[in-house]
Amino acid sequence: MKPNGLLGNFIWKFAERISAQFVSLLVSVVLARQLGPTDYGTVAIVMIFITLANVFVSDGFGKALIQKMEPTILDYCSVLYFNLAFAIVLYIVLFFLAPLISNFYGTGYEILIPVLRVLALRLPLSAVNSVQQAYIAKKMIFRKFFLATILGTALSGVMGIWMAYNGFGVWSLVTQYLLGTVVSTITLALVLQKRPRFLFSFDALKRLFPFGVRVLGVGLLITGYQELRALIVGKVYSSADLAYYDKGRQFPNLLVTNINTSIGAVLFPKMANEQDNISKIRATMRNSIRFSSYVLSPAMLGLAAVSEQFVRLVLTEKWIPCVPLLQMFCVVYLFYPIHTTNMQAINSIGRSDITMRLEIIKKIIELLLLVIAIQISVKAIVVFEVITAVLFVFINGYPNSKLLNYSIRDQLLDILPNICLAMIMAIVVYLINYVPIGVFLKLTVQVIVGGLLYLLLSVATKNKEFKFIFDIILKGVIKRKG
Predict the structure, then answer these.
(1) Looking at per-residue confidence, does 34 or 296 come out higher?
(2) pTM of the predicted structure, to 2 decimals
(3) What is the C-alpha separation between 184 and 147, in angstroms, rounded?
(4) Where do runs of H (alpha helix) occur along 68-169?
(5) Nearest CA to 59 among 239, 221, 186, 220?
(6) Which pLDDT value is given to residue 2?
(7) Distance between CA atoms of 23 and 44, rounded to whole angstroms?
(8) CA pair distance 115, 82, nearest whole angstrom
């Protein structure tokens, strides 16, 4: 593993994701402390439909632009205008569906109508933003995306938090989401200095369509199933159960999504530009799996170990029922980077047909298990998610055993050392739960002990990823002093 532009772009993309999600987390924590689980469950229901709708304007043609070797200005403009028109149509559909969605959940959910209609205004903005992101990814200039996100998150975060403290509740989150997208899109337009031309070609879209529609299909399968689970929990059980489920998923999802999205955003264009060189794709993929497992394993297992103290301190006692769900979700998300890296590698060589078939197989398995679990409890749903997360390591990795000569066995051997180090650290951290001291002090001790122990274990075992990161930091310090 050698330091190169890939790491630099990953750092910029990761910083962009962290800055964006930190504000969302802060606002969410403020709302969770001021609102009860039932109120927060209402927000979670709205986000089900917003997240699903956003897939249509964020995936597909945007990924096809990145996968294409040399996209032209005609390609970019055609995708921009098509996405924008489609987003407007989709907004109109959601606008008129809002009352039906409210009726589906019954009385007490009338707030869903105005919230959904306002938040859906993000769709036309996301249509523009997705093309901007495709251009940035193709040119590997993630630093500019970071600058736009910082401004967007700062302005929207300040407004969202102010509204939350002044009793606006749900609308503080709505404002934060919508304003963040507006500012980010406008700032990117100014930073990139690329004005769209009045160019459009159906032929250009047709050339991008085969790859784009399969990527869109995969995105819909993944996101659709994730949100379907939340929708069913909210309908079959209660909005409080949905709130606990959503909170249990939120924090591990926040950590993993930031790293996972950063890796995927940088990895896909990198491998797509090298799609004719299988050995380079395999090397990039292997480095990504090893590096992400080194970073995420202690984060997920450590969070599981301190989850009870974390929830008591950050969310207060009323959210304690989400602790076991949070712990199980940490195990689920532990395997996400290996899933993402395998899928990105397959897509980078233009085989989105394989990823489509894999997702169909996986969703059939997940739906069958969901039908069983929903009859038992919310915990059973998450237990089955843990089972499928492990199973899908083998399903997602199988094609690359042949396509890239990177077997499942080799992938597991690459991540196993890092997971073992993290497990030792997590066991020690968990035992501190039995020390009779205050919640804040206990959590502080757990974090410090966990971090130091993981570093010491990395040094003692001469961990390659630790050495790589240490060398990068050391060279940066020397360069500054020089």
Answers:
(1) 296
(2) 0.64
(3) 9
(4) 73-105, 112-119, 122-139, 142-165
(5) 220
(6) 42
(7) 17
(8) 26
